[in-house]
Amino acid sequence: MELHRSAQETEEHKNKRLTAKHELMVILRTLEAERAVSAKLRDSLKFTFTPKAQSQQQLLQESLQDFETELFRLSRRLNKPLPAATEAAEAFDDGFSGEDPASPAAQRKKHSSGTNKSEVDSAHLISHLENETQRVSQGIMALISNIERFHVILKEDRNCAASFADFLLTGQATDETRSMTSRSRNS
Known about the structure:
Blueprint: H1 2-77, H2 87-94, H3 104-111, H4 117-154, H5 160-186
Helix pairs in contact: 1-4, 2-4, 3-4
């Protein structure tokens, strides 16, 4: 009887060990899959999203500089003063001065002590992407500011399209006047 019970307990322990082993293997496979997904996300952040945000930010900055130049030329052509740049445009031109200590990225850095290298790298990549995304947002705000300045220059009781059409016609009229003047000189 005792031998039978001992054999039964041994069989139960064996089944429990096999069940625990199976559960551990499932957890291990899940962990490996999560690590693979995490590595893909980290690579995407590092090699796709962050460079794309940097590229967009740089393109936006170059476009804003061109827009500013053309805005200045338009104000001179229309003999109207160029309104001062707003804080949004100046902040974008000055560059991003650093990270706000209250930002989520800064908070992650505070809590990253004692974490593994992968977590620190991920937090750094996310922080970098957040910074670049914020710079793109600042660029968009600077663009909106410059468009408002454009409207101020063109402000008369007309809309932007009418002013732009007059601007184009003024350019054509100036070209026609020049050609008439040069014809009369040649005569």
